[in-house]
């Protein structure tokens, strides 16, 4: 089991410098990962400060040495895949091969897409997502690559250098359970990051998700099952019991959410310093 932090890229106390400092403290406190949200606008009525995730991740990479870093989640349909490929490869090298890319359709479609003239329709975004993943993994190889899809067309192109990690930068796929399509997509990649529509994730939900993904896996390569939630930092035993239930269902990464603390740097720092919800660190 690995333990990370799940941090919004907006809030009264959020800045790129603050998140980079928190990631440094997270590494010292024994956490294994630091993941930030990827929004342009979290809601149409948003007034809180919001930072660019990729600039922020670069600062985090320079301020840490060990922990895995990444987004949770990046809406690929909102990005030019070749631009995202260049950013991710650069960050992979900058971090020494510590990047994980978590992808999904993106939410909310009105604020993060329609507000800026982007297509909010879920089917269109799903098609762009799947094509975008083919382009990302093609360009990451550092070999001549061309693509002719419904939404994207690339002439024969060489992107160099290749990604530092092999066989590629790990890709986790986010989605809302019980929608099945995101988890069929996840089965083709390296991990799944499920959220639940209308409520909290249960141990049984996670077991059902794991079983569904296993039914659609075609390889035996390692696969991560990732979940976010809240545990009491001042009660290690209770926190460990909370996560242990999900570990029994196949969870490999627990992401402690700092969403509710985003208004106070000190509150976020306090939870980070309390360490992950395990009794062995």
> Mean of residue pLDDT?
96
Tally of helical segments: 9
Determine Rg (CA atoms, Å).
18 Å
CATH homologous superfamily title: Luciferase-like domain
Poorly predicted tracts of residues: none
Index terms:
TIM Barrel; 36% helix; 281 residues; 9 helices; two-stranded antiparallel ribbon; alpha/beta
Topology summary:
Blueprint: E1 2-7, H1 16-28, E2 33-36, H2 53-62, E3 68-75, H3 81-94, E4 99-104, H4 109-112, H5 122-140, E5 145-148, E6 153-157, E7 171-177, H6 181-186, E8 191-196, H7 203-216, E9 224-229, H8 236-247, E10 253-257, H9 265-274
Parallel strand pairs: 1-2, 1-10, 2-3, 3-4, 4-7, 7-8, 8-9, 9-10
Antiparallel strand pairs: 5-6
Helix pairs in contact: 1-2, 1-9, 3-5
Structure, described:
This protein is globular. The mean pLDDT is 96. An 8-stranded parallel β-barrel has the order 1-2-3-4-7-8-9-10, surrounded by 4 helices. The protein is built from 9 helices and 10 strands. The chain has a single domain (2-274), classed as TIM Barrel (Alpha-Beta Barrel). With 281 residues, it is α/β, with parallel strands linked by helices. Helix 1 (16-28) crosses helix 2 and helix 1 packs parallel to helix 9 (265-274).
Brief summary:
By secondary structure, this protein is of the alpha/beta class.
């Amino acid at each position: 089991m690995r333990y990370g932090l799940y941090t919004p890229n907006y809030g009264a106390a959020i800045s790129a410098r603050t998140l980079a400092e928190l990631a440094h403290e997270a590494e010292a406190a024994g956490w294994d990962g630091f993941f930030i949200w990827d929004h342009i606008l979290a809601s149409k009525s948003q007034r809180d400060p919001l930072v660019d995730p990729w600039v922020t991740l670069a600062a985090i990479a320079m301020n840490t040495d060990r922990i895995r870093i990444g987004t949770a989640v990046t809406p690929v349909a909102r990005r030019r895949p070749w631009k995202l490929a260049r950013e991710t490869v650069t960050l992979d090298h900058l971090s020494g091969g510590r990047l994980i890319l978590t992808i999904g359709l993106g939410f909310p479609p009105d604020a993060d897409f329609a507000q800026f003239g982007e297509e909010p329709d879920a089917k269109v975004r799903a098609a762009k997502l799947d094509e975008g993943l083919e382009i990302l993994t093609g360009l990451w190889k550092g070999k001549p690559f061309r693509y002719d899809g419904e939404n994207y067309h690339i002439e024969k192109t060489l992107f160099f250098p290749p990604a530092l990690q092999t066989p590629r930068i790990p890709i986790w796929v986010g989605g809302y359970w019980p929608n099945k399509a995101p988890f069929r997509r996840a089965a083709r990649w390296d991990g799944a990051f499920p959220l639940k529509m209308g409520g909290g994730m249960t141990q049984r939900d996670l077991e059902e998700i794991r079983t569904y993904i296993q039914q659609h896996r075609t390889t035996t390569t390692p696969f991560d099952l990732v979940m976010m939630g809240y545990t009491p930092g001042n009660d290690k035993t209770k926190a460990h019991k909370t996560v242990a239930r999900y570990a029994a269902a196949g969870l490999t990464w627990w992401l402690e959410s700092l969403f509710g603390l985003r208004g106070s740097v000190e509150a976020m720092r306090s939870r980070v310093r309390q360490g992950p919800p395990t009794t062995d660190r």
